[in-house]
Every structure is written in structure tokens, then in C-alpha cells.
Design goal:
Elements (H helix, E strand, L loop, with lengths): L5 H11 L21 H14 L3 H7 L6 H13 L2 H16 L6 E10 L8 E2 L7 E9 L5 E8 L4 H14 L8 E4 L6 H9 L4 E4 L20 H11 L2 H4 L6 H27 L8
Parallel strand pairs: 1-5, 5-6
Antiparallel strand pairs: 1-3, 2-3, 3-4
Helix pairs in contact: 1-10, 2-3, 2-4, 3-4, 5-10
């Protein structure tokens, strides 16, 4: 997987390291055990994100350099300091500066996944025999780059998650340039059209629901530019911790999602560099 390539890992770590809050020494005698390295904790987080294994297994896969308890504690500290959100924001800004976001046409969709451990932000998955699951809703630009997202239980309808997804993109200042939004028939309602109007999006292409007794294909619209968001959902589903999530808090799932976005965009920027500026590729 691209997220485990040394160059990708080094670049993402270089962006995360300056964001980590400085540790304050609190022991009165200064004689406790040496503090585990942040880089070692980051590697355990990466292994769990990519494979979806338990924290204990991720610790063993990383050579037992740092305990799983320490890694979870360090993750909570970084999440509270906004590290994961900040690195995702930096990745989006870097992509926009170097390649450019095409916001004339965007697409939004949800994706259902397993969450066997339950916890807040989960619900009965209607497509998986009512087993516990979670859902993310993501807004992507024309080429599938995520620009806004949110999460909730698997029982939530996509249209319910539309408003917080758009609000997340609006906080980044990326919604004002949107001209057309593509949605599937799960969003076909007057509530959806009202919400889009509130965000200043006048042109919405929504696949129509087929009414009882109508022949298939009579009122539906073609997929159009909804395929980029479907492809993005596939990219994100390759991360094991997103595909089968065992976190029990919403903030932890959002942290995992933001880190996955950072790895995706970093890999894309490296591919762009290798194609258009091959002279900058480091010698291996």
C-alpha cells in the first residue's frame, strides 16, 4: 500500500512533527523512564490504520518499541491538539497550490462499514443484517480529492449527513467556488434542495427515485460525475482501520479518516512530481 512506502511516511511525518505539542516535564525528580519517541508512536498508528489490526498486534508488528497503551495515550494528546485535522488541512492546501482543486463540479456520497466494537457514532447497518456499523460522508472535487467529510452511525440516511459534510467544506473556504453538485437518488428530496440552497449551491444534479410501477431507467439520471466520489470511497476503504473500525469514539474515527486523507494526497503529490519533475526524484 502506498501509505507504507518510506517516502510517503517520511513526508507525512515531516508535516506532523512540528504540530505535536511540546511535552512538559512534570516529574519532580526527573527520574522516570525515558519518554517513547513520537516517531515510534506514529509508526504504530500507521500500521493500525493500514492493516486494521488491534493496537496490541500493531505494537508487535513494530517490534515492541513502544506499548500500545502509550500509543493510544499519545494519539489522544495529538487529537486534542488538532494534529490530525491540521495535517489533513495542510495536505489539501498543498494539493490546491501545486496541482489545483477543480471545484466547478463536486460530488457527495456516503459509505457504510463495519464497527463491531460499537460505541458512539455507530448504528445498525441496514445492508449487513443490522450488525453495528458506521458511515462516512465525503464531498470530493471533480477528480475525487476529499474536501469535506463527516461520520455517523450506519443507520443514518445520506441526506441527513449532507449538511455537516457541506459545512465541513465551507469551513475550509472551498464551497463558494462550487457550481454543480452531483448526488445519487438517496438525496432526492425537497429537504436536500433546501439545504443546498442555504449553502449557495443552485445547480444540483440528483438522480430521481423510481416510483412504484415505473420501468427501470424511466426517470433515473445517468451516473454522471458521481463516479469520482465512488472511487474516493474505494481508496479510503483500502485502509483496514476504516473498513472495519474498532474505535469507540467519533473523534478517534475522524482522526483516522483525516490521517488517511493526508496519506492519499501525499501519494498523489509524489506521483505528480515523478511525472512532471522527474529530476527532483530522490536517488534510492
Amino acid at each position: 500500500m502506498r501509505a507504507t512506502e518510506p517516502e510517503v511516511v517520511d513526508i507525512v511525518w515531516a508535516a506532523i512533527e512540528p504540530l505535536i505539542p511540546v511535552h512538559a516535564e512534570t516529574h519532580p525528580l526527573g527520574c522516570h523512564r525515558p519518554r517513547a519517541a513520537d516517531r515510534d508512536c506514529f509508526e504504530v498508528m500507521l500500521v493500525r490504520l493500514v492493516t486494521g489490526c488491534s493496537w496490541e498486534d500493531a505494537e508487535r508488528l513494530c517490534g515492541n518499541k513502544v506499548s500500545d497503551t502509550t500509543v493510544r495515550h499519545r494519539r489522544d494528546q495529538w487529537e486534542a491538539a488538532g494534529v490530525f485535522n491540521a495535517v489533513a488541512e495542510e495536505a489539501i492546501r498543498a494539493y490546491d497550490k501545486i496541482i489545483g482543486l477543480d471545484l466547478c463540479e463536486v460530488a457527495v456520497d456516503g459509505s457504510l462499514h463495519k464497527s463491531p466494537a460499537g460505541g458512539e457514532g455507530t448504528g445498525k447497518n441496514p445492508t449487513d443484517r443490522a450488525k453495528l456499523g458506521w458511515k462516512w460522508s465525503v464531498l470530493t472535487e471533480k477528480h475525487g480529492i476529499p474536501i469535506g467529510w463527516t461520520t455517523d452511525g450506519a443507520h443514518r440516511n445520506d441526506s441527513v449527513l449532507l449538511e455537516p459534510t457541506l459545512a465541513d467544506a465551507a469551513e475550509r473556504g472551498l464551497l463558494s467556488a462550487v457550481e454543480t453538485i452531483w448526488l445519487d437518488r438517496g438525496y432526492d428530496s425537497e429537504v436536500t434542495r433546501t439545504r443546498l440552497a442555504e449553502f449557495g449551491i443552485a445547480d444540483a444534479v440528483i438522480a430521481k427515485k423510481r416510483k412504484r410501477g415505473e420501468a427501470e431507467g424511466t426517470t433515473t439520471l445517468p451516473m454522471g460525475l458521481r463516479w469520482p466520489v465512488e472511487r474516493t470511497n474505494s481508496w479510503l476503504s483500502n485502509f483496514g482501520a476504516l473498513r472495519r473500525n474498532t474505535d469507540r469514539k467519533i473523534c478517534h474515527r475522524l482522526a483516522q479518516f483525516a490521517l488517511a486523507v493526508a496519506f492519499l494526497l501525499t501519494a498523489k503529490l509524489i506521483d505528480w512530481r515523478n511525472r512532471w519533475s522527474p529530476g527532483c526524484v530522490p536517488i534510492r
